[in-house]
């Protein structure tokens, strides 16, 4: 993991990640993101996925999530 974050911040992020990752597979899909943020416009999602999904596999790993929000 590249980002150096304090443990408590990391713990917070893990909880946030787990609450979005509703099927618990360790990845946040776009569908899960939409379910969690139903008001988010499609353009914002698109911009976010381009920026955040650094390995372009169409889903967010915890590492990508941490990089995005920190
Ligand atoms: Ca998931
Ligand atoms: Ca990814």
Give a short summary of the structure.
This protein has 70 residues and is mainly α. It is 57% helix and 6% strand. Residues 21, 23, 25, 27-29, 32 line the site of one calcium ion (CA).
What do you see in this structure?
The chain has 70 residues and is mainly alpha-helical. The chain has one domain: EF-hand (Recoverin, domain 1). It is 57% helix and 6% strand. The protein is built from four helices and two strands, in the order H-E-H-H-E-H. The protein is globular. Bound molecules: calcium ion (2 copies). One calcium ion binds next to strand 2.
If classified by CATH, what would the architecture be? Orthogonal Bundle
The CATH homologous superfamily is named EF-hand
Number of helices: 4
Bound molecules: calcium ion
Question: What's the CATH topology name?
Answer: Recoverin, domain 1
The major pleated sheet works out as:
2 strands, antiparallel
User: How many β-strand stretches?
Assistant: 2
Determine the structural class based on helices, strands and strand pairing: mainly alpha
Average pLDDT metric? 89
Unreliable runs: none
Strand order, largest beta sheet: 1-2
How much of the residues is beta strand, in percent?
A: 5-15%
Q: Radius of gyration, rounded?
A: 12 Å
- End-to-end distance, in Å? 13 Å
Overall geometric form: globular
Tell me the helix content.
55-70%
Could you give the order of the helices and strands? HEHHEH
């Amino acid at each position: 993991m590249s980002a150096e974050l304090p443990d408590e911040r990391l713990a917070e992020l893990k909880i946030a990640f787990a609450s979005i990752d509703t099927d618990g597979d360790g990845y946040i899909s776009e569908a899960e993101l939409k379910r969690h943020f139903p008001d988010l416009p499609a353009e914002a999602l698109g911009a976010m996925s381009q920026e955040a999904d650094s390995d372009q596999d169409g889903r967010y790993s915890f590492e990508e999530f941490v990089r995005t929000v920190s």
